[in-house]
Amino acid sequence: MRYIHRFIPVLALLFTLAATSYAQSARRTVILIPFDFVAGEKVLPAGTYRVEPVRRDSYTAWEIRSTRAGAGAVVMTSAIGSGAAEEAEPRLVFRKYAETYVLAEVWPSSDSAGREVARSRRGSASAARNVKHEVVTVMAYAR
Q1: DSSP letters of the chain?
Q2: Structure confidence at residue 36 (pLDDT)
Q3: Which of 11, 28, 69, 95 has its CA 20 to 30 A from that of 20?
Q4: Is the pTM of this model over 0.90?
Q5: Domain extents for the chain?
């Protein structure tokens, strides 16, 4: 009987750790980006990237890190409205100015709400010149 009293707190701790680990992995998105792009002030090459919040308790800063080359960037974001139910899939949204793709939005796998990426100098300069842009969405693939 006394072993059961020792076992219950250990079991509770294990459940808490498992729930925390699951919540963290639900915020992580793996995505194949088929073109070079600008994230923050960095130009990143095409490839497979892991996208996740820098901190577990905050969605403000997001890290975009290549799964192979080690290239990466951290971008600051702000909340934007939630997408439609059919658009709840994890994805990244880019603005394409001429031949330059600029990361504009992050839609993580755990939320239907998105995050708007703060404009970089490069994106702001194109917007200030009233350069027309098109919106390109890249969907995450199953892990």
Answers
A1: -HHHHHHHHHHHHHHHHHHHHHHHHHT-EEEEE-S-EEETTEEE-SEEEEEEEEETTEEEEEEEEESSS--EEEEEEEEEEEPPGGG-S-EEEEEEETTEEEEEEEE-TT-SEEEEEPPPHHHHHHHHTT--EEEEEEE----
A2: 96
A3: 69
A4: no
A5: 29-139
